[in-house]
Amino acid sequence: MFGRKKNAPITGKIDTLISKAAQVQGDVEFSGGLHLDGRVVGNVRSLGAEPATLWISEQGMVEGSVQVPAVVINGTVVGDVHACERVAIGPQSRITGNVHYGTIEMVLGAQIDGKLIPMAGTVAATAPASAGCLVTEPAEDEVAVAPRAVAG
């Protein structure tokens, strides 16, 4: 009605699954798609030339930083999130850390204890496979979110 375009949902193929019964100690590096129902105590980042997506379910938890081009968060992240393409934050999500994003989508009920920081000058398509998301300069228009802020 007002000319706003709705973003298509983040889709992709799930290549790896960490079930809710699993707990990983240490960094997780993947390519393609990763669905996390369990707990990772370490950093999660994507590798490889193909597009990568991370889905964190309501039961999923990451205690460390996340560096993946596209991220869907419905669970808990204790650490910074770097998503140079897109991040979707669901109603059950709890993030303690800064969220660096290319494009962001938040739903009512999402909680973020940190800053929302747009990634200016991202180089997603030309970045080397192991480099992940590159930022040439920090964005000047950071958005501070009060602790326990609720999106809506």
Secondary structure layout:
Elements: E1 16-18, E2 23-25, E3 28-30, E4 33-36, E5 39-41, E6 44-46, E7 53-56, E8 61-63, E9 66-67, E10 70-73, E11 76-78, E12 81-89, E13 94-96, E14 99-106, E15 111-113, E16 115-118, E17 122-123, E18 134-135, E19 143-144, E20 149-150
Parallel strand pairs: 1-4, 2-5, 3-6, 4-7, 5-8, 6-9, 7-10, 8-11, 9-12, 10-12, 11-13, 12-14, 13-15, 14-16
Antiparallel strand pairs: 15-20, 16-19, 17-18
Briefly characterize the structure.
By secondary structure, the protein is mostly beta strands.
In helices, the fraction of residues equals under 10%
Radius of gyration (Å): 15 Å
Q: Strand content of the residues, in percent?
A: over 45%
- Major sheet characteristics: 11 strands, mixed
Q: What is the arithmetic mean of pLDDT?
A: 82
* Distance N to C terminus: 20 Å
Structural class, by secondary structure, is: mainly beta
The total beta strand count reads 20
Number of domains: 1
What does this structure look like?
By secondary structure, the chain is mainly beta. It has one domain (16-150). It contains no helices and 20 strands. Strands 1, 3, 4, 6, 7, 9, 10, 12, 14, 16 and 19 form an eleven-stranded mixed β-sheet that branches. A seven-stranded mixed β-sheet has the order 2-5-8-11-13-15-20, with no helix packed on it. Mean pLDDT is 82; it is low at 122-131 and 135-140.
